[in-house]
Amino acid sequence: MRLAPGFCFLPFLATLIFGFLSACLTNPSGPPTQEPTTITLSTYRIVFTAVDDYERVDATVLDQDSRVISDATVHWRSADGSIARVSDRGVVTASGNGTTQITVSSGYATATVTVSVEQAADSVEIMPSAITLLQVGATGQFTVVVYDANDRIIPGAVVVWSSSNPEIATVDANGLVTAVSPGDALITASSGGASTSRPVYVEVAPEPSRIVLNISEATLAAVGQSLQLDAQVYDDNDAAIPGAAVMWSSSRPEVATVDASGLVIAVSNGTTRVTATSGDASAHALVHVVIEGTEPPEPPEPPDPPPTEPPE
Predict the structure, then answer these.
(1) What residues does each domain of the chain span?
(2) Which pLDDT belongs to residue 15?
(3) Are 97 and 117 spatial neighbours (Cβ–Cβ below 8 Å)?
């Protein structure tokens, strides 16, 4: 090859080499490496009102040129799994009340989601289903359990108690009910926007005024022979008091005993007084035990009269 006269070869060669190197630098053989630089999230704060509620968080990883890295590896971690846990797909689930952080990472890039779990009352359960009080001043205890929307118990839930008729029954801050007067009342437990009521029945038993026995006097003729006494209790209005409690006693149990149902059993010769008592009322029956083939016992001697003081 012949060069034109006056052609300078060295400057031409330098220009050729520079152009080649420039082309290599501006047009590399492959695409540049994408390094995770920024992570954007679909949300940065989640508030749950029930345990086991969940929400998915979507993470987008960007490189140094703000381009999406579609195949980026993302790691999820919860600072406190007892409050919220997270899956490897970014599904956050409420575990318990409190606040924690969910951290998303890819390479050196990170982002965080603040998660708060604040259980809200959805239903209230009161136990027992009803209380019956049988006298003024008597007490009964209600207990309560508060649930969220997923029927999970809310520990330490604030409960407010109230009575529909405090003239009949009152209730304190702990659910203790006190009878005030005969009648019915509804006791309500409220927590947040949820509430439930249960009835209280105050049924004050009338005071016993008198007792009538089915037998006023009887004779038993053998050891072990029995006699059933029945007592009917009446109030001030002469109305029978069904189910009134009656206490039985024998003045001389060595002659005849009596049990809690009024059953009298002969033991030995003699006479005893069997008494039925209910409240301030009482009645008695005389029971003679005369065992056949034996002499009737001598009547007990009367007690000595009290000493009299000589006249002054």
Answers:
(1) 38-117, 123-202, 208-289
(2) 58
(3) yes
Does the bond joining 11 to the residue before it have cis omega, within 30 degrees of 0? no
Query: Residue 153 has what DSSP assignment?
Result: B
Report the half-sphere exposure of 166 (CA within 13 A, side-chain side): 6
Identify the architecture of domain 123-202 in CATH: Sandwich (2.60)
Q: For residue 230, what pLDDT is reported?
A: 97
146, 184, 204, 256 from 177: Cα distances, Å: 19, 12, 15, 45
Distance of alpha carbon 164 from alpha carbon 124, whole angstroms: 18
For domain 38-117, give its CATH number from 2.60.40.1080, 3.40.50.620, 2.40.50.140, 2.50.20.10.
2.60.40.1080
CATH 2.115.10.20 fits 208-289, yes or no: no
Query: What tokens were used for 190?
Result: 């409220």
At residue 13, the pLDDT reads: 54
Question: Which pLDDT score, from 0 to 100, does residue 138 have?
Answer: 94
Distances 137 to 134, 142, 202, 203, 255 between C-alpha atoms, Å: 9, 16, 10, 12, 41
- Per-residue CA distances from 58 to 39, 43, 68, 104, 169 (Å): 10, 8, 13, 10, 56
Residues 201, 131: Cα–Cα separation, whole Å: 6
For residue 285, how many other CB atoms are within 10 A of its CB? 21
Low-confidence ranges of the chain (pLDDT < 50): 1, 7, 21, 23-25, 27, 301, 310-312
- The yes-or-no answer to whether 38-117 and 123-202 have a common fold is yes
285: left (phi over 0), alpha (psi -120 to 50) or beta: beta
- Which residue reads 């929307």 in tokens? 149
pLDDT for position 292: 79
